[in-house]
Amino acid sequence: MELTCETSEPSDTVVAPPAPQRSFAYFADLNPADNTKFIEARVYRKWIAVKMPSFIPTEFSCILLDKRGSAIQANTDLTEKDRFDHELQLNYDTFPHHYFNFAAYNELGSRLEKKNPILTDYIGYVHNVEKVKEYGSATGNKIKLRNIAIRNLNNNVVLFTLWNEKASAFEEEEYRKMRQPVILAVSSCYLKTYGGQIQLSATSTTSYYFNPPIDETAELLAAYNEANTQPLQIEVHTERSSEWEQKRNRNRVPLVTLLQIDPNTQQRVLFTQEVLILQLDTGYDWYYRKCDGCGGKLDYGFVHGHCHPYGNESKPQNSYSFRMTITDGTANATITCFSPQMDGLIKDVNALLEEVDNKDPAVLPPQILALQNTRHVFQFKFAKPSGKGTPTLVLQKVMDHPVPMLPTTAAEPSSPPAPLLPPGTSQQITPPPTTPSTTQETPANTSATPTQLTTSAVRKQLFIEAAEKEIDPQSKKQKTE
Question: Which pTM does this prediction carry?
Answer without folding.
Answer: 0.43
